Amino acid sequence: MTNSVPPRDNPAGNAEDKTRKQLIAIIVLLVLIIAMVGTFFFVKVSRDRATVAEGQGTSSASGSGSSGGAAGSGPDAAGNAGAAIEVYKKILVAPPALDTEAGSVSPGSETKYALVHLDAGCVPELVVNYGPHIEGSEINAIGVFGVDENDEQVSFTKSYLDGVASAGGARRAVQRAVNQPGMYYFQAEAMRGSVDALVKRQGGELFDEPANPEPGEFTPFEWIPTQQLDVVEAIAGGTDCAPGAGAEGTASGNSVEAAGGQSPKPTAGASVPVPAPSDFESRSGSGSSGAEEESSGDGSKKTTFTGTVRIFQTDDDLVAYQGIRNPNPGSNTGPYVILILDSPMQVTAKKSGKQGHFITRSANMLLLDSGADATGTDGERKTVTYSADELYWQSDTSLPMAEPRVKTW
User: In this structure, is residue 87 part of a structural domain?
Assistant: First the structure.
């Protein structure tokens, strides 16, 4: 019987096997780590590329006029003008109560509307004129509505006022911006000066940006009775884009050209178009907001005026020409014989109510005569010269607002 001898351990071989297994484990672990890191970066890069592509698509849509202002901020972000039509019709049938600085205002029998682009899209916002914000007041409450990217109604929380309170009282005016989206809001009060702002839409809010518009950059709204819905229905094509958005046509269906905003000056007896006002007096019937200089001393300085004589038979004719609301409803001190200047000019005239004080400011016309005994030839070309002592600026609401007049007494 042969005895078998068990193999003897090989310490060197066991150590090599152990080292080999450890190396294999380390290599496998490194491969797994590299694979995980690679997978992480691959996913991250893919997401980044998707985000960039989405952003480029949004920018392209915005640049083509399919979104208002910022992406998704305007009613046509969803491209649905039809939804705006339905929303606006429902509002005009039964306008909701409007919160103003004087309290809640309900729509009255004089409720009217207009359309205006408050962002860079191709579907306008709805501006509703509720009529007097306080019973018996000459100042009207103005509300603004739109639709969002989900085609739902947006009732903007801000409201505005438009009109003249009384002689020497508060003046407010909303006017359409001509060469850009937005509407101007003008405010003036005795002893407080005036504040001008450009109202624009950003998403579901309206923002008032400080502004100092030049003549021709704004024009009055042409208010439309709420029963006339053809102007609302006309936005169905989505081609009535904001000024500067690349579309032709008018800002809201009203006949105001996108460039300039000026209307021809009328002759006496003709229908009177509303021109773009030249300063705040023309916007709201207030005192001048433009640059002016007050001085005292010698009134012998002479000014020569050249222009065309126009005769306005009534107050309504004259305020329509100036593009303002009548500050003296029901009164009439016409006819007015007025020299329409060939171009605006700086005029030095007495400050009414202050002896020896003079004001120099811009003028567009000169009142030559008024009242039943006024004389003049409509359409006559005329050049006249007066000293500062012979001219004065009114301090009340007599017409024409904020324009110089010849002293006739």
Answer: yes
Average pLDDT over all residues of the chain: 75
Q: How far apart are alpha carbons 81 and 151 in whole angstroms?
A: 9
Cα separation, 400 vs 285, in Å, equals 9
Q: Within this chain, do residues 191 and 289 fall inside the same structural domain, yes or no?
A: no
* Residue 357: exposure state from Cβ atoms within 10 A (0-12, 13-18, ≥19): middle
Question: In this structure, is residue 56 part of a structural domain?
Answer: no
Q: Check whether 337 has a pLDDT greater than 90.
A: yes
Q: Widest CA span of the chain, in angstroms?
A: 159
Report yes or no on 6 lying in a domain. no
Task: Give the whole-angstrom CA distance, residue 161 versus residue 145.
Answer: 15
pTM, full prediction = 0.47
What pLDDT is stored for residue 6 in this prediction? 55
Whether the per-residue pLDDT at 67 is higher than 50: the answer is no
Closest CA to 204 of 146, 128, 131: 146
pLDDT given for residue 301 in this prediction: 85
Task: Please give the pLDDT value at position 96.
Answer: 94
**Based on the domain organization, do 200 and 339 belong to the same domain?**
no
Same domain for 293 and 396? yes
Q: Which is it for the CA torsion 241, 245, 247, 250, positive or negative?
A: positive
Handedness of CA 403, 175, 270, 262 (dihedral sign): positive
Cβ atoms 175, 197 nearer than 8 A: no
At position 122, the amino acid (one-letter code) is C
Verify that 228 and 128 share a domain, yes or no: yes
Structural contact between residues 129 and 212, judged by C-beta atoms closer than 8 angstroms: no
Quote the tokens at residue 161: 């006022």
The closest of 292, 280, 254, 318 to 113, measured between CA atoms, is: 254
186 contacts: CB under 8 Å, gap ≥ 6: 171, 172, 173, 174, 175, 194, 195, 196, 280, 283, 284, 286, 289
- pLDDT at position 238, please? 65
SS3 at position 363:
strand
147 lies in which domain range?
A: 75-237
Domain contains 269: no
Number of domains, the chain:
2
